[in-house]
Write a structure and sequence with these properties.
about 25% strand, 8-stranded parallel β-barrel, alpha/beta, binds ligand LLP
Length: about 425
């Protein structure tokens, strides 16, 4: 459920008509619903109620300061994957003891930043990383709390580009080698082993792969405890999928996911962390765009929007489906026209949808891409020298621009021409 509904013949974000935001901010723009973000966070938080737990929002999915503050104030922790994300989280007021640091390529500099600034744990992904962290922590006279990310060799049954838990993937250490890697960690100075981490992929639409992975983590917990390690925390990653098309069968709900976690690892008495991104932010955001032209091609009709692949890369990159709906509610019994919905960027990959059945549209009309809150704005670029588009946050009947559109000069003046040219 989200808070983007038609009311009085037009699409609203909570209590604000999108047409009003478009008139004030200009298109294209991203808009997020506070109520939806909070609702989704709370679904996870409630699903783990009764267990010692922390929901760490995977901020790679949506990292605007205002969104982080909103979720942080509601009690969320953050899963960060770079020094930049760490700084963003801290700048939004998230305490270090609610930040977990994931990623296979943490640099010594990033480790230092997090150790000095305060960190809940590092999810370590390899032996060389472990040695580097040991050195950095020792040189600072600090102790780094760690989990080791294990690769359980489970098929997440999702798009190949976002699957991370098969043995051929670059993530984690093979679970078969976990015991020797934990022995090595225990022997290194400056590290404190506290738990196990696992994340098998994104946009999972079934619980079974999670269940298989968590069962392996539960077995490993018992083995490691028998080996003398104190395993008190399990980070179970993110990955629960969302419905992208309204008429699709629905992926499992956070409540079912939470119940499954309890079944698989509840008996271990560990503190549980999860790292959901998409399920919290995906359906809490829209990309709103204007129609520039309707162009007739050879047996096709192109809807040319002012948003492009640089603003929302998911269709070009993963053949992802996003529902696209008109901002003015179509009249009952309206005709449908097949459109190729494209952006102005100079490559054919800049296509959002082919032959999409839509109510008849014309230049100046507004459309909204659903499910665009996750991996939308954060993956955008300035390709074709198109400045990054604004982000807007709605709460009830108020809205605010939470990242403004840069001016052309700001974009151009980041470059410098050397004096010898
Ligand atoms: N934890 C770790 C260690 C991750 O690598 C990820 C996502 C998450 C948590 C959050 O997963 P989520 O709950 O959002 O599924 N750009 C792609 C998705 C890439 C996901 C990368 N890792 C897309 O647009 O579909």
């Amino acid at each position: 459920m989200d808070h983007f509904l038609y009311r009085d013949g037009q699409l609203f974000a909570e209590d604000v008509p999108l047409a009003q935001i478009a008139a004030e901010v200009g298109t294209p723009f991203y808009v997020y619903s506070s109520a939806t973000l909070l609702r989704h966070f709370k679904l996870f938080d409630d699903a783990l109620a009764g267990m010692d737990h922390l929901v760490c929002f995977a901020m790679k999915s949506l990292s605007n300061q205002a969104v982080l503050k909103l979720l942080g104030d509601a009690g969320a922790g953050m899963d960060v994957v770079s020094g930049g994300e760490y700084r963003r989280a801290r700048a939004a007021g998230i305490p270090g003891d609610r930040i977990v640091f994931s990623g296979i390529g943490k640099t010594r500099e990033e480790m230092r930043t997090a150790l000095e600034g305060g960190i809940r744990q590092f999810n370590v992904e390899s032996e060389p990383e472990m040695e580097a962290l040991s050195e950095v922590a020792t040189s600072l006279g600090l102790e780094a709390p760690i989990t080791v990310r294990v690769n359980p060799d489970v098929d997440a049954k999702t798009h190949a580009k976002i699957s991370t838990g098969k043995k051929e993937d670059k993530f984690g250490i093979p679970i078969s080698r976990a015991r020797e890697v934990y022995a090595m960690a225990a022997a290194l100075p400056g590290l404190k082993v506290i738990g196990i981490d696992v994340h098998i992929g994104s946009q999972l639409t079934e619980l079974e792969p999670f269940r298989l992975a968590y069962r392996k983590v539960a077995e490993l917990t018992e083995q490691l405890r028998a080996d003398g390690h104190e395993i008190t925390r399990l980070d179970l990653g993110g990955g629960l999928g969302i419905p992208y098309a309204r008429d699709n069968s629905a992926p499992p709900l956070p409540t079912d996911y939470g119940a499954m976690i309890r079944e698989e690892v509840g008996h271990l008495g560990c503190e549980i962390e999860i790292e959901p991104g998409r399920l919290i932010s995906g359906n809490a955001g829209l990309l709103v765009a204007g129609v520039i032209y309707v162009k007739s091609g050879e047996g096709r009709r192109f809807l040319i929007l002012d948003a492009a692949m640089n603003d929302l890369i998911r269709p070009a990159m993963y053949e992802a489906w996003h529902d696209i709906i008109p901002v003015i509610e179509p009249a009952a019994g309206h005709d449908l026209t097949p459109y190729d919905i494209v952006g102005p960027v100079c490559e054919s990959g800049d296509t959002f949808a082919k032959g999409r059945m839509m109510p008849t549209l014309q230049a100046q009309d507004l459309v909204a891409f659903r499910s665009a809150g996750a991996y939308g704005a954060v993956m955008s670029s300035e390709y074709n020298s198109r400045p990054l588009i604004p982000e807007v946050l709605v709460q009830g009947d108020q809205f605010a621009v939470i990242r403004r559109r840069p001016t052309f000069d700001e974009m151009i003046n980041r470059d410098t021409i050397p004096e010898w040219l």
